[in-house]
């Protein structure tokens, strides 16, 4: 049982600009995922499937408390509840970052860095 990394997610002021920069840095391809005004999302995809992708989402607030980058963990070989129990036993703790009613769980590692535990297996 383990959790694989699906996205390395960056909260940013301009998702398109950030994705364009990181696509140039990595040589990967930037693809728009959501063009909703105020909630633009881009993914920077590696050339080979299966590896983590960089995901950029536009948010209105600057970095103050919440991480501007976090990992999205994809449960593998178990459901979200079982993986949550395992992560809490390892020293993770639940965190409220005002996410509202969503299917993922926001946790923090022992040093307080936030990450998300997805509700279901999502293939890259």
Q: Please, what is the oligomeric state? A: single chain
Can you give the mean pLDDT?
87
Number of strands: 8
Rounded radius of gyration (Å):
15 Å
Structural class: alpha+beta
Secondary structure layout:
Elements (H helix, E strand, L loop, with lengths): L1 E11 L2 H12 L2 E6 L6 E5 L7 E6 L10 E8 L3 H11 L2 E2 L10 E4 L5 E4 L7
Parallel strand pairs: 1-4, 5-8
Antiparallel strand pairs: 1-5, 2-3, 3-4, 6-7, 7-8
Description:
This protein is 19% helix and 37% strand. It is an alpha+beta fold. The chain has an eight-stranded mixed sheet with strand order 2-3-4-1-5-8-7-6, covered by helices on one side. It is built from two helices and eight strands, in the order βαββββαβββ.
Give me some keywords for this one.
8 strands, alpha+beta, 2 helices, 19% helix, 124 residues, 8-stranded mixed β-sheet
Please summarize what this structure is.
This protein is α+β, with helices and mostly antiparallel strands and 124 residues long. The protein has helices at residues 15-26, 80-90, and strands at residues 2-12, 29-34, 41-45, 53-58, 69-76, 93-94, 105-108, 114-117.
């Amino acid at each position: 049982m383990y959790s694989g990394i699906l996205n390395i997610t960056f909260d940013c002021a301009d998702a398109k600009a950030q994705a364009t920069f990181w696509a140039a840095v990595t040589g990967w391809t930037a693809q728009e995922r959501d063009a909703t005004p105020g909630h633009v999302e881009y993914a920077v995809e590696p050339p080979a499937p299966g590896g983590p992708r960089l995901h950029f989402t536009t948010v209105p607030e600057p970095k103050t408390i919440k991480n501007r980058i976090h990992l999205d963990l994809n449960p593998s070989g178990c459901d979200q509840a079982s993986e949550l129990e395992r992560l809490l036993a390892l020293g993770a703790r639940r965190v409220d970052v005002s996410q509202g009613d969503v299917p993922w769980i926001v946790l923090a590692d022992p040093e307080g860095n936030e990450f998300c535990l997805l509700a279901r297996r999502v293939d890259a």
